[in-house]
Amino acid sequence: MVADAFGERLLATLTGGALTLLISLGDRTGLFEAAAVGPATSAGLAERAGLDERYVREWLGAMVSGGFFAYDATTGEYVLPPEHARLLTGETAANAAPMASTLRGLGAMLTDLEARFGDGLGLAPETFGRRFAAVGVDPGENWRRIYDDQLIDGFLAAVPGLTERLSAGARVLDLGCGTGHAVNLMGTAFTASDFTGLDIDADLIGRAEAERVRLGAGNVSFEVADAATLTVDRPYDVIFAFDAVHDQRDPAEVLRRIRAALAPGGVFVMVDAYFSSRLENNLDNPLAPLCYAISLLYCTPMSRYDDGAGLGAMWGTELAGSLLAEAGFSQVELMASPRAQNCLFVCRT
Q1: Strands 70-72 and 77-79: what pairing?
Q2: Longest dimension (CA), the chain
Q3: Residues whose CB is less than 8 angstroms from the CB of residue 82 and which lie 6 or more positions away in sequence, other chains included
Q4: Which residue among 61, 103, 267, 332 sits deepest, i.e. has the most Cβ atoms within 10 Å of its Cβ?
Q5: Within 10 A of 311 (CB to CB), how many other CB atoms are there?
Q6: For residues 271 and 337, is the Cβ–Cβ distance under 8 A?
Q7: Is 0.85 topped by the overall pTM?
């Protein structure tokens, strides 16, 4: 019976992997959005989306048998239920379809990662950029939607007094800012504050600056720099790190640099994975397998590059708290965030 049960689990896993690729196709070709308009035959849906009917029909076969769509054999119409469409369409963080494309992009890293299993080295940030670009995937899309939905009224509002401080005017740094969307959103929301976004990837900073110009955020600037060499002429009142510290080559040094860069009475807000450092404590968390996988495919090889620590996204709250204390933060409060897989570390000197 155990073998039979595992066989069923294995089949479900393989099926889920295949359907993940098709979710990415549906998202990127506009099929989910077209289906959300209402019932349609395969020809009708293909016409709505401007696609070839034969390929659309085969895709629909997988979507119906996989439980995504309903099918009326009498009329030949396919239906995307509204409760399913809510999770597969739209520009909000509720739309999980872009995550399928992120996983597709991470799949492009497998050949590189296989070699790292043998030599134990890491992967350079630009390697990820090339592989993702080759399959047309934007690795920042998921977090961009999360920021749009939950940054101001969720993450920031969860920290007592933070939005008031930003409204009054503060000097703010976002460390490991990526494409800079969070910085630009905060800059437009809190015009009395000055924001700086810092990232080691020049291409990402270029995209961040382009968005800043489009938004006209004159109180925002961006810099290309390594967080582990952070030095400041003027200290910051608020420093953020959104899902970024565990990716660093030397997280302990980065945290020490952050502590040194804070003004007296300043606050460091670190958003990170909400898991334990101990595997046995994560076994009942349904999000753990996906997050361990993403950590392996992205976070761990990124951090191991150039003899890095290789903490990975699943470093856990216990280790994170220990490193924050070692960096000199005497007050560290662990708080829930708007997302079950993330938490907030609110750190003061």
Answers
A1: antiparallel
A2: 72
A3: 36
A4: 267
A5: 25
A6: yes
A7: yes
209 touches 202 (CB < 8 A): no
Specify which residues 335 forms β-bridges with.
344
Is pLDDT at 140 greater than 90 in this prediction?
no
In the chain, % helix, strand, coil (3-state, to 5) comes to 55, 15, 30
Tokens linked to 102: 């992120």
Residue 79 is encoded by which pair of tokens? 């239906």
Alpha carbon of 349 to those of 231, 260, 324: distances in Å? Answer: 18, 10, 10
What residues contact residue 287 under an 8 Å CB cut-off, 6+ apart? 340, 341
pLDDT mean over 248-256: 97
pLDDT in tens, 10-51: 999 999 999 999 999 999 999 999 999 999 999 999 999 999
**Nearest residue to 78 via CA among 62, 98, 101:** 62
Measured between its terminal Cα atoms, the distance across the chain in Å is 56
